[in-house]
Design the sequence.
């Protein structure tokens, strides 16, 4: 089943659960990209992975540019860096709302945003989830696999590996500002290998928001 929408940004019309941004600042950085994507890149929040100035995840800071660069190399992204065209890929954050000075969300604020993130993830219904950084990886492994209690949250070891989830293949990504040596190349090679085979996962999740 395909999603029918011509919207690239916030294709399902999500509304932020709260507004704690400074007056005149952007309220939230919504999900962005191909609503029928097989690959879903999941970041933490705009203070970590960028986008508060552009409204697009993974833009306008070092971490965002590193993720975008990988997506370009494997054919997911093209066009301007501030608002790229995405094909077969969707970008979003666990915590969509913008906060003053890019501060880290509280646990309550993460919890407030989680149902919105979950609804969008299930609406996209991608086959491959790519959580970026420790927070997003921890959340994805707890919520969408049965593996978290068996795994140490050791991002250097988990980086660019494959973990089978409940209807998803999860490929954790180490925080880009921590990449060393071959981390980038390992991620590119992993994605190219997945793209070169039948990566589709057996699905058992809803495909609509509601």
Sequence:
């Amino acid at each position: 089943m395909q999603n029918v929408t011509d919207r690239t940004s916030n294709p399902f019309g999500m509304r932020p659960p709260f507004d704690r941004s400074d007056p005149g600042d952007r309220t939230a950085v919504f999900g962005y990209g191909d609503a029928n994507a097989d690959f879903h890149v999941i970041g933490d929040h705009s203070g970590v992975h960028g986008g508060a100035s552009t409204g697009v995840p993974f833009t306008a800071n070092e971490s965002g540019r590193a993720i975008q660069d990988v997506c370009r190399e494997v054919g997911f992204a093209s066009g301007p860096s501030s608002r790229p065209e995405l094909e077969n890929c969707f970008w979003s954050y666990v915590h969509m709302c913008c906060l003053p000075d890019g501060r880290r969300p509280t646990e309550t604020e993460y919890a407030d945003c989680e149902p919105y993130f979950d609804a969008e993830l299930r609406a996209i219904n991608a086959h491959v989830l790519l959580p970026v950084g420790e927070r997003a990886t921890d959340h994805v492994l707890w919520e969408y696999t049965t593996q978290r209690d068996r795994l140490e949250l050791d991002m250097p070891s988990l980086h660019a590996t494959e973990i089978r989830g409940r209807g998803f293949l999860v490929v954790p990504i180490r925080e880009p500002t921590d990449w060393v040596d071959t981390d980038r190349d390992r991620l590119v090679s992993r994605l190219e290998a997945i793209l070169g085979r039948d990566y589709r996962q057996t699905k058992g999740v809803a495909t609509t928001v509601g």
Observations:
- The radius of gyration is 16 Å.
- The chain has a mean pLDDT of 92.
- The domain at 32-195 is CATH 3.40.470.10 (Uracil-DNA Glycosylase, subunit E).
